Amino acid sequence: MPSKLRLNKYLRDCRLGSRRKCEELVRESRVTLNGEVVSEVGTLVDTGADEVKVDGQVVEPFTDLIYVIANKPRGVVVTGSDPQGRSTFYDAIEGLPEGLFSVGRLDMDSEGLLLLTNDGKLGFRLSHPRHEVEKVYHVRLDRTAGDDLVARLKGGVEIEDGPARVKEARILEGGEKPTLELTLTEGRKREIRRMLTACGFGTWWLRRVRLGTVELGDLPSGAWRYLERDEVRGLRRLVEEAYLKKVKENRE
After folding, report:
1. Beta bridge partners of 214
2. Which tens digit of pLDDT belongs to each residue from 165-216?
3. pTM for the complete prediction?
4. Which domain range does residue 18 map to?
5. Cα separations in angstroms, 157 against 130, 151, 192, 193, 197
6. What is the CATH number of the domain that holds 140?
7. Is 107 a catalytic residue?
8. Which of 155, 177, 174 lies closest to 164 in space, CA to CA?
9. Which residues of 185-208 are buried (b: 16+ CB within 10 A; e: fewer)?
């Protein structure tokens, strides 16, 4: 661990909640550094010498890295606390280790795989668009669809904040309410829903089933599990290969 950390990261590494929650602790004057109340979230903490307290209790960072996937149910928001009073993911999922943040989000009406960790470096790399980490979704539509919709989604659809396209698309199940499998490498807010709306379709449900090399599998809704060692290695290998690919492209 670095000898000096910004206070908000130090508190998050103490597993006191999301970055936003930790910043709230500072703004509420509940954090002291060597006996003095701290008002700036960017204050540097010497991890080897300084004493940090929250509500009068000494807090120290956890040094072990944790990697978890959870199956987010519909109807909850992915945030530590919601100003509108809606049910949050962290309320709905019981027994989650503290101090984890989600790598990307799913909107309230969506469900499926969420990756949570306290590994800021890996989390940043997985969520950054330049690494083009694949995210796979299953989407059930409100009416029949064919290959013309698949072609349009792959070719590009104009939405409010610019053109969007999927990397891969295929029809998993046909019928009056077909199910599509869509693969994206970016994650704009409600991107899939907006693309489908632009194509004249609504969605009955949307579920993320894969992030990078990690699959949701048969994990029940509302449940979570630790990643296996090989799964963590697969994610690290994925972002490392993506980084080296970009370096090579920039040199050419």
Report:
1. 211
2. 999 999 999 999 999 999 999 878 899 999 999 999 999 999 999 999 999 9
3. 0.74
4. 4-58
5. 20, 10, 10, 12, 10
6. 3.30.2350.10
7. yes
8. 155
9. bebeeebbbbbbeeeebebeebbb
